[in-house]
Amino acid sequence: MAQVIVSPREMRAFAQDLAELIQAVEARDRQLAEGLRSLGSTWADERYRTFSRVQSTTAAQLQIFYRMGKNYVQYLGNKATAAERYLGR
């Protein structure tokens, strides 16, 4: 006999939390990048260039996280719907 070992409600709640986290981090990431670009007009030494490269690399890695996270949000929603259908809810 097939079993479903998942709580669709908890799965949807986690997906919502993940979506909100991604949205918040994306917004802060944009703010930081804008602030750093602005700061570049007055802070133009080697340390700025080094930090700017690190920030750019980190932002690229975060883009991967955002994309994967958004895919998981959709996946979890679909999985919760399938579990609800199976459970007859």
Spell out the key features of this protein.
89 residues; mainly alpha; Helix Hairpins; 2 helices
Radius of gyration: 20 Å
Bulk shape: rod-shaped
Q: Could you tell me the mean pLDDT? A: 93
Bin the strand percentage: under 5%
The H/E string reads: HH
CATH architecture: Orthogonal Bundle
Tell how many strands the DSSP assignment holds. 0
**What distance separates the N and C termini?**
19 Å
Q: Main sheet, how many strands, which sense, barrel?
A: none
Structural class: mainly alpha
Number of structural domains: 1
- CATH topology: the name is Helix Hairpins
How many helices? The count is 2
Low-confidence regions: none
Name of the CATH superfamily: ESAT-6-like
At the first level of CATH, the class is Mainly Alpha
Secondary structure: helix percent: over 70%
